[in-house]
Amino acid sequence: NVSTLAGVHPRQVVEDDMGRLDLEDVKDVFRLDDDDHFAKTALICIENSHNMMGGAVLDKNYVSSLGILARELGVGLHIDGARIFNAAVSLNTPVGDLCEGADSVSICLSKGLGAPMGSILVGSKELIRLARRARKRLGGGTRQVGVVAAMGLYAIENNVDRLADDHERAKKIAMELNNHGFHQPQDGNVQTNIVYFALPEKCNLTKEEFAIRLKDDYGVLVGSGYSRGGEIFRVCTHLDVDDDGVDRAIEGMLELSSK
């Protein structure tokens, strides 16, 4: 866990429905190192887009305001940007502008961007030096990484603009589910490529049966267990899901929910 591997103590702050931390809440949980009962605050972490909030995006103004607060408090701001390009496309904002207020950003190349593998950490020269040491300490390291870099470079150069197609397909799924009685967080408001849902009350299948039948009968995989009791499912649209695939997924979910 994070305490064992990094020697730090995380402090969670409750977000709003769009994944935003209230700046006053951040101030309230900030700690100096003048009290032996508390760990000193050193870093603020946010996620953009926010997975568990259904792919909600944080705009430039919010990230910048949090960056200003971080500097006032003398701490860093890190963005978990696994899907930062999805956020940038959704907001029609250059990805660099979304990261302006941050000290470091991590980016995944193998999610929406479609590379077979790879992630990037962006930060100062000294931060990257320390990150490489931490990676080595944890046993990390890959040989012949030029092949991985080539795949990632292709993804960044060719697969960013098409993320808008994923967003439209996710919105189509959300709309159809919403129209047929599926429970959806945020009333089915989808900004990027993630859709969360729970089965309608009329469905006679268990959540386990639904997932198995959807895979076996329609070839559609869904993630499950995203809430207490595991009632919430997640679907993501991506490079390998075309319009026909979306239609097949919708057909399967609607037919199975009526059984």
Q: Features of this protein?
A:
alpha/beta, 259 residues, four-stranded mixed sheet
Structure description:
The chain contains 10 helices and 7 strands. With 259 residues, it is α/β, with parallel strands linked by helices. α8 runs parallel beside α10 and α9 packs across α10. The chain is globular, with a radius of gyration of 20 Å.
Encode the helix/strand succession as letters: HHEHEHHEEHHHEHEEH
Number of strands: 7
Summed over residues and divided by their number, the pLDDT gives a mean of 92
Structural class: alpha/beta
Unreliable spans are: none
Let me know the largest β-sheet: 4 strands, mixed
Spatial strand order of the main sheet: 1-2-3-4
Report the portion of residues in β strands. 5-15%
Query: Helical stretch count?
Result: 10
CA radius of gyration: 20 Å
**Helix share bin:** 40-55%
**Termini Cα gap:** 42 Å
Oligomer: single chain
Shape estimate: globular
